[in-house]
C-alpha cells in the first residue's frame, strides 16, 4: 500500500476497471463531499474495504462553497449549544494539526460602534476561549479604537469605539476534500468521481449494494456492499425515496424528506476593501444574521446569508435581496462601500439542514446545525447536516451506528485523530498563510513533485502553473476544466472572469494528460454564472 509520501495516480481507466471487478465491499459511500469523504477515510483507515461514488466531482456541491472557516461556532455559543461548540473546538484543533498546509489559525476582530458591545461580546468570547481550553488558538483581547483600526485598516472609522479580537481557523475547503479523498485512496479505498448511484438492490429485504452509472460513458455497474452510507448532502432524500419505495408493497408510509435546504451566498472582492490579514466579524446585523469579511487566497470573501431554498439546483443563483444584504451591511462597517462592479465572483451553497419530521416551515435559521444519522428498516444508512469542522466526528458517529446495527463489525474508533492527511508530513517547513495568494504552499510536502512535472515554470496566472494542471490530472482525479479551475485551484471562486480566459489553455493540457473531453464550453458558461449579480 502506498504511503502519504507516495501518492497514487488517478488514471480514470484503472479506477473504472476496479469498479467493474466482481467483489463485495464492506462499505459503499454515496457522496463525495466532506461527510462522505470523512466516512470513507475513517473506514479505510480501520481496514474496511471501501468504495465511494460521487455523481459529479469531489466537493462539487456544498463542500467547496463554505465561508472557509474552521470554527467552533460563536453564534452557536450565543444560542446556548455548548456541546456543539465544545465538539467543534476540539475538532478544529484536530483538523489544523492534521492538515496544517490547508488549515491555519486566523485572527478575527469584532468592531464595536456602541460602548456596551465591547464588554458584552468580549465576555462571550472569553467563554469561547475557556471551552477551547488547551485547544485554543489565541486569547481574546479587548481593543481600543487605534488598535482596532491597526488590524482592520479599511474599517469604518466614524463612530468606532474599539473592538474585540479572537481566534478561529481558516481553510481551503475543496483542497481539503481532495486531501481526504487521496488519503483514503492511500489506505485502500476506491473513489470514483463522475459516477452516479442510480438505485439500490436488496437481498433478504436488506440493502445489499447499489447500481451506478459512469456519467462520462453511460456504462452501468453493480456494486455489492454489506453497508451503504448515503452521504449526498442536500441530495440525500433522493436515495432515501428510492429506499422507501421498496417498502411500498408492505403498505408502509412514504418516506418524508429530512433536509430543509438553506442557501448561503458569498461574494468576493479585492483585498484592498478589507486590508491586512485580519478577518472582520459582525455578530448581529440589522436582521440578526452574522456577517463575515474574510481574507482568503489574496482576495476577501463577504457573506453569508441564510435563506430557505426549495429547489436543489447544482448551481443556484443568488437572490437579489441576498446580494443587497451583503452589500448594504458591509457598507456599514467598511470605509469604502462595495458596488456590484467590484465583485470578482459570487457563489451559492446549499446547507443540508435537518428538519423535524413534523415540521413543514421555512425558518431555516432556527434549524439545528448538528448532523443526523438515520438507519432505515432496510439498512440504508443516511447522514446529513453538520458542518465542515466536525466532518471527522461525524464519520466516527456514522461508523459507530453502522456497527451498532450489525452492518459492519465493530472496530476501534479514533484512528483518524492523529492521522496526517497526504501532503501534511512536512516537519519544520514554513507555513504560508491561506490569506495570501495561492501557490505551491497548497501542496504541502508534494511541492517538489509538482515542480518536477513539465511546465513548472510556465505560469498561466498568479498561483497556477501548467505543472499544477498536470498534477491535478495525474494525481487529483481532475477530468474537466471546472475540476481544475474551481476546486484544484480556486480561481473560479476568486476571479470568475480571469478563470474564463484560461479555460482553453487548461483544457488543452488536460486533454494531453487524460485524452478525455475537458468540456471547455461548459466551464466558460459556468464562469458567467459566477458573475451573475441580480439587479
Structure description:
It is a single chain. The protein is an alpha+beta fold. The chain folds into 3 domains: about 10-60 and about 175-260 and about 360-405, FAD/NAD(P)-binding domain (3-Layer(bba) Sandwich); about 75-170 and about 260-355, 2-Layer Sandwich (D-Amino Acid Oxidase, Chain A, domain 2); about 440-530, Helicase, Ruva Protein, domain 3, CATH 1.10.8. Helices cover about 30% and strands about 25% of the residues. The chain is built from 17 helices and 20 strands. The chain has helices at about 10-20, 35-45, 75-80, 80-100, 115-130, 145-150, 175-185, 235-245, 320-330, 390-405, 445-450, 465-475, 480-490, 490-495, 495-500, 505-515, 520-530, and strands at about 25-30, 50-55, 70, 105-110, 140-145, 160-170, 190, 195-205, 205-215, 220-230, 260-270, 280, 290-295, 300-305, 305-310, 345-355, 370-375, 380-385, 460, 465. Strands 3, 4, 5, 6, 11, 12, 13, 14, 15 and 16 form a 10-stranded mixed β-sheet that branches. Strands 1, 2, 7, 8, 9, 10, 17 and 18 form an 8-stranded mixed β-sheet that branches. Strand 9 (about 205-215) and strand 10 form a beta hairpin. Helix 2 packs parallel to helix 7, helix 2 (about 35-45) packs across helix 10 (about 390-405) and helix 12 (about 465-475) packs across helix 16. The longest helix is centred in the N-terminal third of the chain and has 17 residues, at about 80-100. The chain starts with 11 loop residues before the first helix and ends in a 6-residue tail after the last helix. The model is unreliable at about 1-5 and about 360-365 (pLDDT under 50).
Amino acid at each position: 500500500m502506498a504511503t502519504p509520501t507516495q501518492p497514487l495516480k488517478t488514471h480514470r481507466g484503472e479506477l473504472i476497471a476496479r469498479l467493474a471487478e466482481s467483489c463485495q465491499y464492506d462499505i459503499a459511500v454515496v457522496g463525495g463531499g466532506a461527510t462522505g469523504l470523512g466516512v470513507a477515510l475513517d473506514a479505510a483507515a480501520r481496514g474496511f474495504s471501501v468504495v465511494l461514488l460521487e455523481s459529479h466531482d469531489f466537493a462539487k456541491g456544498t463542500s467547496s462553497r463554505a465561508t472557509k472557516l474552521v470554527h467552533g461556532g460563536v453564534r452557536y455559543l450565543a444560542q446556548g449549544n455548548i456541546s456543539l461548540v465544545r465538539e467543534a473546538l476540539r475538532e478544529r484543533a484536530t483538523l489544523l494539526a492534521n492538515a496544517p498546509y490547508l488549515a491555519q489559525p486566523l485572527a478575527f476582530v469584532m468592531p464595536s460602534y456602541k460602548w456596551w458591545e465591547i464588554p458584552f461580546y468580549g465576555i462571550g468570547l472569553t467563554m469561547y476561549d475557556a471551552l477551547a481550553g488547551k485547544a485554543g488558538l489565541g486569547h481574546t483581547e479587548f481593543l481600543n479604537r487605534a488598535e482596532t483600526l491597526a488590524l482592520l485598516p479599511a474599517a469604518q472609522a466614524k463612530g468606532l469605539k474599539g473592538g474585540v479580537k479572537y481566534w478561529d481557523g481558516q481553510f481551503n475547503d475543496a483542497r481539503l476534500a481532495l486531501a481526504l479523498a487521496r488519503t483514503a485512496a492511500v489506505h485502500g479505498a476506491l473513489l470514483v468521481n463522475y459516477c452516479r448511484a442510480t438505485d439500490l438492490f436488496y437481498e433478504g429485504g436488506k440493502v445489499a449494494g447499489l447500481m451506478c452509472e459512469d456519467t462520462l460513458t453511460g456504462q452501468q455497474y453493480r456494486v455489492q456492499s454489506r453497508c451503504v452510507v448515503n452521504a449526498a448532502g442536500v441530495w440525500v432524500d433522493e436515495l432515501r425515496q428510492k429506499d422507501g419505495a421498496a417498502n411500498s408493497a408492505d403498505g408502509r408510509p412514504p418516506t418524508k424528506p429530512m433536509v430543509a435546504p438553506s442557501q448561503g451566498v458569498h461574494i468576493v472582492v479585492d483585498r484592498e476593501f478589507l486590508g491586512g490579514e485580519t478577518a472582520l466579524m459582525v455578530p448581529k446585523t440589522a436582521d440578526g444574521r452574522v456577517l463575515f469579511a474574510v481574507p482568503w487566497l489574496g482576495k476577501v470573501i463577504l457573506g453569508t446569508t441564510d435563506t430557505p431554498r426549495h429547489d436543489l439546483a447544482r448551481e443556484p443563483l443568488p437572490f437579489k435581496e441576498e446580494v443587497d444584504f451583503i452589500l448594504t451591511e458591509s457598507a456599514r462597517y467598511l470605509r469604502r462601500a462595495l458596488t456590484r462592479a467590484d465583485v470578482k465572483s459570487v457563489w451559492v451553497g446549499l446547507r443540508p439542514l435537518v428538519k423535524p419530521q413534523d415540521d413543514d416551515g421555512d425558518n431555516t435559521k432556527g434549524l439545528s446545525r448538528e448532523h443526523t444519522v438515520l438507519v432505515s428498516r432496510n439498512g440504508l444508512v443516511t447522514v446529513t447536516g453538520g458542518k465542515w469542522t466536525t466532518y471527522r466526528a461525524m464519520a466516527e458517529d456514522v461508523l459507530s451506528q453502522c456497527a451498532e446495527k450489525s452492518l459492519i463489525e465493530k472496530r476501534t474508533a479514533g484512528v483518524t485523530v492523529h492521522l496526517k492527511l497526504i501532503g501534511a508530513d512536512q516537519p519544520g517547513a514554513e507555513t504560508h498563510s491561506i490569506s495570501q495568494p495561492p501557490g505551491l504552499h497548497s501542496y504541502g510536502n508534494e511541492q517538489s513533485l509538482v515542480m518536477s512535472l513539465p511546465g513548472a515554470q510556465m505560469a498561466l496566472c498568479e498561483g497556477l502553473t501548467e505543472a499544477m494542471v498536470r498534477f491535478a490530472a495525474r494525481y487529483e482525479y481532475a477530468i474537466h476544466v471546472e475540476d481544475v479551475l474551481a476546486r484544484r485551484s480556486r480561481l473560479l471562486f476568486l476571479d470568475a472572469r480571469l478563470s474564463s480566459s484560461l479555460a482553453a489553455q487548461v483544457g488543452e493540457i488536460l486533454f494531453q494528460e487524460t485524452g478525455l473531453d475537458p468540456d471547455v464550453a461548459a466551464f466558460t458558461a459556468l464562469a458567467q454564472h459566477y458573475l451573475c449579480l441580480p439587479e
